[in-house]
Design a protein that fits this description.
Blueprint: H1 3-10, E1 14-25, E2 28-40, E3 45-49, H2 56-63, E4 71-76, E5 79-80, E6 88-91, H3 103-113, H4 118-131, H5 147-160, E7 165-169, H6 177-193, E8 197-202, H7 205-211, E9 214-218, E10 225-230, H8 245-260
Parallel strand pairs: 3-8, 3-9, 6-7, 7-8
Antiparallel strand pairs: 1-2, 1-4, 4-5, 9-10
Helix pairs in contact: 3-4, 3-5, 4-5, 7-8
The structure holds adenosine-5'-triphosphate (ATP) and magnesium ion.
Magnesium ion (MG) binds near residues 56, 57 and 169.
């Protein structure tokens, strides 16, 4: 298989090396991130867990190439990122669907922007929507869907152009607990079927551990990597893992790390 095909299949590796990010506002410099180093191997799922304001969204925007780090570098498949990285799908906390466009057309937007074959994209969009239980809502407008359904459509939109990296910034933060658990299961299944490299940002310890191959725990601002956990339960995950004592041990351990860092 050629390297390009291999990357399409498994996603790209993400390497963050000594990354620091300063913001200057009204003459005052704020260090959002300080010396962050981490690796997300191609096709794996990485959760980034950290308190509010520790620089998680900043880190995500550095991986998307929308911002450039003040120090250090981001490498995708070994190449230093310069400028915007287009082969990426992004999901935010609130769904940013266009209210005047149908669900299917919202999902197709990235494929249109990238000028992909629209017939093929439509097929992929339909399949993705069917896969998350939205097959009957292709022609509905976002206002006719629940919050959870809209967020599912947002995930389909992020995946339709087959990006090699999926960035998710607290995608389930606005959902109720039951919907959230269902979405975690759906995302884990979709990801396991068509593994791309995922960077998943959350405040929720159990959510972070449930889906991920590794969890990165960050300190309060300036954000640094406090610890890193390999989560080696088999993928896709079964809901019962939450009752596994090893799962609870990891969750307790992370809670302890946050307590020691003064977060909890
Ligand atoms: N464009 C900017 N200009 C100035 N300061 C910024 C900018 N973007 C982020 N910051 C600051 O950098 C720090 C980290 O912000 P960031 O949004 O990355 O945190 P976060 O971990 O995503 O927080 P939350 O969990 O609340 O979303 C904050 O102190 C924030 O005020
Ligand atoms: Mg944020």
């Amino acid at each position: 298989m050629s390297q390009d095909m291999e990357t399409k299949k498994r996603g790209a590796s993400v390497a963050i090396r000594g990354v620091g990010m300063d913001f200057t506002r009204r003459g005052e410099t704020i260090t959002a991130l300080d010396d962050v180093t981490l690796d997300i191997p191609a096709g794996t799922f990485c959760s980034i867990l950290g308190p509010s304001g520790c620089g998680k969204s900043t880190l995500m925007s550095l991986v998307s190439g929308l911002d450039t780090p003040t120090r250090g570098e981001v490498r995708l498949d070994g190449k230093t990122l310069q400028g915007a990285f287009h082969d990426v799908g992004i999901v935010f906390q609130s769904d940013v669907l266009l209210p005047w466009v149908t669900v299917l057309d919202n999902v197709l937007l990235p494929a249109k922007v990238k000028k992909q074959d629209i017939g093929k994209a439509r097929e992929r969009g339909r399949k993705l929507l069917e896969n998350v239980g939205l097959g009957g809502f292709l022609d509905h407008y976002p206002g006719e869907l629940s919050g959870g359904m809209r967020q599912r459509a947002s995930i389909c939109r992020a995946l339709v152009a087959e990006p090699s990296v999926l960035l998710m910034d607290e995608p389930f933060g606005a959902l109720d607990a039951l919907t959230r658990e269902k979405m975690q299961r759906d995302l884990n299944r979709i990801w396991a079927e068509d593994a791309k490299t995922v960077m998943f940002i959350t405040h929720d310890i159990e959510e972070a551990v449930t889906m991920a191959d590794q969890v990165i725990v960050m300190s309060p601002r300036p954000g640094k990597v406090l610890t890193r956990y390999e989560i080696d339960f088999p993928q896709p995950r079964r809901p019962e893992i939450r009752r596994d004592p090893r799962f609870q041990d990891i969750v307790d351990d992370i809670r302890h790390v946050f307590q020691t860092a003064g977060v909890l």
